[in-house]
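Quick one: structure tokens for this chain, please?
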Amino acid sequence: MQLTVGVLVAGLLTGIVANAGGSIADAVAIVSVLLGLAALSIVLGTKLATGGAGVRITTIVYATLMIVACLSGLGLGDGSGLIFTGGPVIGLACGGTILASMVTTQAGTWFNHPR
């Protein structure tokens, strides 16, 4: 889901940067960051099955950064567009769900079990 949304948002932001007179380097940087975060979420998702404390901590940090980014995104724009209202709310819900799942006692037990 994040890869698809990342590509869509990257396309929109690239158009915004181009219309605002930004350089192609700015657009490439935006696209790189979004696709990098999408790749990180895919890697973390595949590593959840094998467990490990590092995966859990990285997932907690990733979810926290996702929540912070979505909360800051809620303050952008006039609230009339999907990107400025629906996008951060959906991201906030996903980040909150991920974070809540990782900080439970059961998650701690799962990620610390012997392999």
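The helical segments are 2-19, 24-47, 53-74, 82-102, 105-111.
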